[in-house]
Structure formats: C-alpha cells, structure tokens
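Practice problem: predict the structure.
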Amino acid sequence: MDKKDKKELPAREGKFSYEAVEDAASLAKYLQALTEGFASGSMRFSRKDLDMELCPKGLIGFAVEAKAKDGRMKLALKFAWRESVEAKEPKNDTLAIVPGACGEKV
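Answer:
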C-alpha cells in the first residue's frame, strides 16, 4: 500500500475536533448526518488534514446539557461507547426533546 492509499483510509484511533460558527440550517444537516451514522453504525468525520471513522453499536451513553443565562445559550451533546464490550441493561429514565416556540408567550 503506497502513501496515497494509506491517506485515503480513515483513522480508527486518535482525536478529531472541529469548531466553527454555523447557521441553524447547517447544524441541522450535521445532526441529520449523525442520526444516519448512528442508524447505519458508521460515521465519518473529515476536514482537510484529518479523516476519522467511528462505528457506534450496542448501548451508547448519552448526555445532554442545556444552559441559558444572560442571553447566552449553550447546548452540549455527548455520546460515548466502547467497542467489544458486553451490553448492559439500559436505564429506564427517558428524555423528551421537542421543537419549542422561541419568542412566543405560552
């Protein structure tokens, strides 16, 4: 395998990070890609200098944190899983996420 072939294969270990300011429509596309990746069991992250593939399967840890203070909003999503680990029983607690009505009085 030459260097060109090696570069085209996504990394399976290491760290991928990316930060940017995007509009809501762009973020919705990223979230849709994550949804499809979880459903298919494969998601690939890339930028010009790095390419990484993750293969989520089995039970996946999920955390969501939403904050609002002084007009500053923050939403953090975190997913974690291990490869080749026996599945544990899922927790019975459930989360509901529904579209809101920002700016409308209830």
